[in-house]
Amino acid sequence: MASDIDNSAEKRVVRLRIGRMRRRVDRRLRAIEREGRQAASWRTWVRRFPGQAVLAAVGIGLAASATLHPERWMRMVGDSLARRAGDQILTAVLSELRDLWTASAPKKDKAGGGK
């Protein structure tokens, strides 16, 4: 009889722990999904790097307009601006992704055991 009471109490404790763990996993998953949507949005990157976005837009505009006009310098300047902005944006995006990857890595327990 006492063992039945102990078993049911243990079951309740285990079920509570499982429920807490599920809620914790769900919260982490929702946070990762939210960060992923933000990282994939072009608006996020324009907000974070407005200078590079303007530089890229000007460069692409100059390069595109050079097809309508015979001035070769306009296309060269446009290509150069667009390439420079693209390199800066790519470096920033890779840095952001590296930081996200590092932040999402599981924490290691220094004592050797972990929960």
Would you kindly provide a brief summary of this structure?
The chain is an all-alpha fold. It has helices at 2-40, 42-48, 50-65, 72-104.
Structure overview:
The chain is mainly α. The protein has two domains: 1-40; 42-104. The protein is 83% helix and 0% strand. It is built from four helices and no strands. The protein has helices at residues 2-40, 42-48, 50-65, 72-104. The longest helix has 39 residues, at 2-40. The protein is rod-shaped and about 95 Å long. The mean pLDDT is 79.
Order of helices and strands: HHHH
Low-pLDDT stretches: none
How many domain regions? Answer: 2
Give the proportion of residues in helices. Answer: over 70%
Count of DSSP strands: 0
> Biggest β-sheet, characterized?
none
- SS field, number of helical segments: 4
Question: What topology does this entry show?
Answer:
Blueprint: H1 2-40, H2 42-48, H3 50-65, H4 72-104
Annotation keywords:
mainly alpha; 2 domains; rod-shaped; 115 residues
